[in-house]
Amino acid sequence: MTVSRRALLQATAAAPLLAAAPRLWAQAAFDTVRIVTGFPPGGTSDTICRRVAAKMAPSYGKSVVVDNRTGAGGQIAIQAVKGMTPDGTALLQTPMSMLGIYPHIYKKLPYDPVVDLTPASLGATFDFGFAVGPAVPASVKSMPEFLAWCKANPAQANFGSPAAGSVPHFIGVLLGRSADIDLKHVPYRGTQPAILDMVGGQVQAVSGPIGEFTQHVAAGKCRLLAATGAARSKFAPDTPTLQEQGLKDMVFSEWFGFYLPGKAAADVVQRANAALRMALADKETVDGLAVMGLESRSSSPAELAAMLKTDTERWGPIVKTIGFTADS
User: Fold this and answer.
1) Entry pTM
2) Which of 44, 35, 40, 41 has the alpha carbon at shortest distance from 92?
3) Does residue 86 contact residue 263 with C-beta atoms inside 8 Å?
4) Which domains are present in the chain?
5) Which end of the chain is more exposed for a tag (fewer CB within 10 A), N or C?
């Protein structure tokens, strides 16, 4: 009997999950587990939390709830988890920005991403999109056309993002600089509030996770001008990348990660990691996240820590070049 290479790879990848499962199931489930996010219901961060929470119950927690603690660009949620008991009953789910970029823009950040949080697992990866609403003429159908329109209409040259100091914010700034335009930034508490203002005509454009736009694009309420990945997103295959539109250095993506409070014990981390891996590998989770333009992906705690280190080092020079600080 022969075994295909693909089957062998799948079996090898599943082995850690199968090995961890008996230990996970042998432990009594927590009564209540909370997954804290710094962004409001309806967006990508909230979606991944709810999908994962549904699959972590009842084996990891009899009740697994999502706790939306919005404000300060995601900082409030991180501070909340920082002060919680590291026993496995509290998890933070956050984009990379709050951990890898904020240290470069805040002189007194109220948390240390390395000391105050313990990596548990990667959650998902995604690209960004840049869209315009009804405040921008229908004749504007590409990024070069939008930038040209902004140059001709400087009073209306603005865009929203989910938070000041986030990757979507800096994408907008870099786009403006590429055309020598003062593209004004309007920060929001999440991408969905920004999009609602855009489709309502209060803000001209929005930079945010690509999956946040798809339902609005399908409804004809906004136009997705560009995606930020190295290749076209499978979630928006008809949308050209920034590279395709002549912006050669504009390639950006991001990830969501799950963290425990700092100083979580090794067995607590292992248990949370096993539960997260199983939840993220579930077909319903994978399919549900795809609706929001998210690729479900798990990792070991060490792999997540390495990813954060790499991104923190990458964004330092970019932030310095842009010159943005929290006080600017």
Assistant:
1) 0.83
2) 35
3) yes
4) 14-125+255-322 (3.40.190.150), 127-227 (3.40.190.10)
5) N
